[in-house]
Amino acid sequence: MHVQSKLDSLGQVNQMDVSSGAGTAGVQSVAGATAAAGGSLDSMTFEYAPNGLLKGQSSSRGLSTRFSYNGLDLSGVTVEQGGTALHQFGYERDGNKNIIGRTQNGITDSFGYDPSNRIASEAAGEKNKTYGYDPNGNRSAEGSGKVFGMTNASYGYDSVSRLTHVSGEGKEVGYSYNGDGLLYERTEGGKTTRYYYDEEAKLMAEAEVEGGAAKITYAYVYDLSGQLWARQDKASGQLQYYQLNGHGDVVGLSDSLGKELNSYSYDIWGGPKTVKETVPNVLRYAGEYWDDTTGLQYLRARWYDPGAARFMGEDTYQGNISDPQSLNWYAYVANNPLGYVDSNGHEFMPTTKGGIFYTNQKTIIHCERVGMGTCWNEFKAGTIQASAL
């Protein structure tokens, strides 16, 4: 699979084309690559406001997303298929940029915050929740019980504190990591899945492993803001499309004809509320890897437990005494999950979708080696060939 972008006269990405085939030496290139051999799978076009914010993105297959803003803050997202609205989201913020109102497909929630901008309350219809925190910033409030994944699970770690196995309820899941510390293989019930990443540690493909041989099952495509766009089902060769809300959560997955395959909803901490699946999918809350058996989310440096709103291991960044919340080495996004996401287990970022695309050229390769960083450096030096997906 090959991805190529095109720029407009202002240097903004205005089109991304996806074609079958791997291109030269199995390279997926962005911005300035030679077109790959193979038929076209799809094309996405982008529209910008005069200030550079993304107004919309549209697929040639009929799926489109429109964004609206209040100043520079995201205020609305509409996902359509062939002109018919599939999802509509709206957001209202206070003076500190905290989300105090949210509408999701006609259902409205409201939220309150404490003086430290931590979520303190949520109200959705007749369902109200309050959250409190101890002096160390740990959540100690109602709604903290885990109702998904494993209950009373036991956890095992390696010598560098990486999670290596989880067991409970008669199930056991094992994890291994590559030379860059990224999740490399997951094993459960004799089935092993292998994962491949780009140089920015984004998941680019997954494969089934049998007898030591890996067979690619899905390859992933991201838009130029780094959020999920689609994946290619290697069995059929067709694309399947992700639908996201303003937080970057996967709320739906559809086939190339627009038929719904999967749908999801979440609590504010990322725990699943509703799950409807006809095909397997590991990318869920905030567009990140989710293990449905264990109820844990993989965020590269650490695993996150949405049921407890805490990371499984402490942050190697020890914090700053001038920022008391950073001194809690287990807290997730400073206890403000509506306004922020954490993609690497070390730092959190605002969730606002949109903004100016950075159009510097980059090249992404896929290679089946333990230690992606080593492979990437050797490829740039011309000493190895990347294996095609």
Question: What can you tell me about this protein's structure?
Answer:
The chain is mainly β and about 400 residues long. The protein has one domain. It is built from 1 helix and 31 strands. The strands form 5 sheets. The chain has a 12-stranded antiparallel sheet, with no helix packed on it. Strands 1-2-4-5-6-7-8-9-10-11-12 form an 11-stranded antiparallel sheet, with no helix packed on it. A hairpin with a 5-residue loop joins strand 15 and strand 16. The longest helix is centred in the last third of the chain and has 9 residues. The chain is globular, with a radius of gyration of 21 Å.
Short account of what is shown:
By secondary structure, the protein is mainly beta. It has one helix at 372-380; strands spanning 2-7, 13-19, 27-30, 40-48, 54-59, 63-70, 73-81, 84-93, 99-104, 107-113, 119-124, 127-130, 154-157, 163-168, 171-177, 183-188, 191-197, 203-210, 213-222, 228-233, 239-244, 250-254, 260-266, 272-277, 289-291, 296-299, 302-305, 310-311, 340-341, 349-350, 362-365. It is globular.
Outline the fold blueprint:
Layout: E1 2-7, E2 13-19, E3 27-30, E4 40-48, E5 54-59, E6 63-70, E7 73-81, E8 84-93, E9 99-104, E10 107-113, E11 119-124, E12 127-130, E13 154-157, E14 163-168, E15 171-177, E16 183-188, E17 191-197, E18 203-210, E19 213-222, E20 228-233, E21 239-244, E22 250-254, E23 260-266, E24 272-277, E25 289-291, E26 296-299, E27 302-305, E28 310-311, E29 340-341, E30 349-350, E31 362-365, H1 372-380
Antiparallel strand pairs: 1-2, 2-4, 3-31, 4-5, 5-6, 6-7, 7-8, 8-9, 9-10, 10-11, 11-12, 13-14, 14-15, 15-16, 16-17, 17-18, 18-19, 19-20, 20-21, 21-22, 22-23, 23-24, 25-26, 26-27, 27-28, 29-30
InterPro entries: Rhs_assc_core, T6SS_VgrG/RHS, TEN-like_YD-shell
Protein name: Teneurin-like YD-shell domain-containing protein
Organism: Paenibacillus terrae
